[in-house]
Design a protein that fits this description.
By secondary structure, the protein is an alpha+beta fold. It folds into two domains: about 80 residues, 2-Layer Sandwich (Alpha-Beta Plaits); about 60 residues, no CATH class. The protein is about 45% helix and about 15% strand. A four-stranded antiparallel sheet has the order 1-2-4-3. The termini are far apart.
């Protein structure tokens, strides 16, 4: 995890391992926001950048960077392909049993799979059926 910008009360980090991992970014944001002194954090899963606004009287930037590194080490491997498969089959995995956003992740995964499949498997005039099928799956 490399610091991109450090100013009093504002810290920007870059973690390439977060790129494309929305669930990991959400989990990381929850854990960062629980750190004493952190006012808010924003994580962009497209770029892997983390913006943290914090109170300098409660925590130093060096300590904050260290704690975030520890959190990243803790959640590495927490999300893998088996996670989405277990969630898709209707029985949430043990890691997400208490996660309120679990259903949202499943919906996104199903919609993405249906969109990709319809794009590659259906002829051009029938590709509009992909979103319709995804909505029908969600309602059942």
């Amino acid at each position: 995890m490399a610091p991109v910008s450090v100013t009093p009360g504002r810290l920007r980090l870059e973690g390439r391992e977060l790129i494309g991992k929305k669930h990991s970014c959400s989990l990381l944001a929850i854990k960062i926001n629980a750190i004493t002194g952190v006012i808010r954090s924003d994580i962009n899963p497209r770029t892997g950048r983390i913006l943290i606004i914090f109170n300098t009287s409660n925590i130093e930037s060096k300590v904050l960077i260290e704690q975030i590194g520890n959190i990243l080490d803790e959640i590495k491997g927490e999300i893998d392909s088996s996670h989405i498969i277990e969630t898709y089959h209707g029985s949430p995995c043990s890691r997400c049993a208490n996660n309120q956003g679990n259903e949202k992740i499943t919906r996104v995964a199903i919609r993405a799979a249906v969109d990709i499949a319809s794009h590659f498997l259906l002829p051009k005039p029938l590709r509009v059926l992909g979103p319709i099928v995804a909505n029908a799956i969600m309602k059942s």
